[in-house]
TrEMBL record:
Positions of the catalytic residues: K191
InterPro entries per record: 6-PGluconate_DH-like_C_sf, 6PGD_dom2, 6PGDH_NADP-bd, HIBADH-like_NADP-bd, HIBADH-related, NAD(P)-bd_dom_sf, Tartro_sem_red
Species name: Streptomyces luteolifulvus
Biological process according to GO: glyoxylate metabolic process
Protein family per UniProt: Belongs to the HIBADH-related family.
Residue span, 3-hydroxyisobutyrate dehydrogenase-like NAD-binding domain: 185-303
Protein name per Swiss-Prot or TrEMBL: 2-hydroxy-3-oxopropionate reductase
Length: 313
């Protein structure tokens, strides 16, 4: 049986495979984490959450979840613990130490880290958790804020098959394409490749937008026809309105994509893979961040192309 499944493939699986749904702790309620946790609540799961921002905890409570006062309180009685934080240092901060997940979760719990971090961080976490009797999956996602809200994320998973099978009903409440990619760290490796493809694609779209506008072409019409041909992509579909309206409200921030491009370039170097185009785009992302645009959506790569083309947005 394939490891890739649509969210609608097994609508009654969670109910039929377990007498009750697992209790879930969710750590990290940001742009992605809040709508994802809310989708689990809609699917019938009891979700206890913790984050540093009170307004995010209030939002979770308003959606039917339970706000915890600490990581320890959130994870103490959880069957499944899901983390969604910005980067490796944050994963390490919430996982280790006397107030962290590993010291406070019960033995036998399943920890699913859905952050985008280095593969080695995931491997190290799985090893440390094993010593505490806690199982781990790395399960980063792709699809951005819209995918999180619509529960159509792609979820790339690293870990043991049995743990993946147990977690699958939870994943099906969050995403549409769910794939076990290999052992611990494999999900993060695939996510790094995903971020490479997305960054290069956004950069190509941004360059096309500037080229079309400077040529006097009707941009909306051009993007419509491009989207219907071989140049079409999920990136173009999702980001078309950002380009047209110069709307760079963050769905996925340049700061985070800068972090991800560092992950993929470092990982590629360690395995001897050349990234000639990816390395250039990584520098363009870094340049945009250095110019103060790190808090904008990654579609703001368009601003960098405009600057290089003579405009100063």
């Amino acid at each position: 049986m394939s490891n890739a499944r649509a969210a609608s493939s097994h609508p009654t699986r969670a109910a039929s495979s377990r007498p009750t749904r697992p209790a879930i702790a969710w750590i990290g309620l940001g742009i992605m984490g809040s709508p994802m946790s809310e989708n689990l609540i809609k699917a019938g799961y009891d979700v206890t959450g913790f984050t540093l921002e009170q307004d995010k905890l209030d939002r979770l409570a308003a959606a039917g979840g339970t706000a915890a006062g600490s990581i320890a309180e959130a994870v103490r009685d959880a069957d499944v613990i899901i983390t969604m934080v910005p980067a490796s240092p944050q994963v390490e901060a919430i996982s280790y130490g006397p107030e962290g997940i590993l010291e406070n979760a019960r033995s036998g719990a399943l920890l699913i880290d859905m952050s985008s971090i280095t593969p080695q961080t995931s491997i190290d976490l799985a090893k440390a958790a094993r010593d505490k009797g806690i199982r781990v999956l790395d399960a980063p996602v792709s699809g951005g804020e819209a995918g999180a809200i619509e529960a159509v994320l792609s979820i790339m998973v690293g870990g043991e098959q049995a743990d993946f099978d147990e977690a699958e009903p939870v994943f099906e409440a969050l995403g549409r394409t769910i794939v076990l990619c290999g052992p611990h760290g494999s999900g993060q490796t695939v996510k790094a490749a995903n971020q490479l493809i997305v960054a290069v694609n956004i950069q190509a779209c941004a360059e096309a937008v500037v080229f079309l506008e400077k040529s006097g072409v009707d941009l909306e019409a051009a993007l419509d026809v491009l989207g219907g041909g071989l140049a079409g992509s999920t990136v173009l579909t999702r980001k078309k309105d950002n380009f047209l309206g110069r709307d760079f409200k963050p769905g996925f921030r340049i700061d985070l994509h800068h972090k991800d491009m560092g992950i993929v370039t470092d990982a590629a170097r360690s395995v001897g893979a050349a990234l000639p185009v990816g390395s250039v785009v990584a520098q363009l992302v870094a340049s945009l961040r250095a110019q103060g645009d790190g808090g904008l959506d990654h579609s703001a790569l368009l601003r960098g192309v405009e600057r290089l083309s003579g405009a100063r947005p």
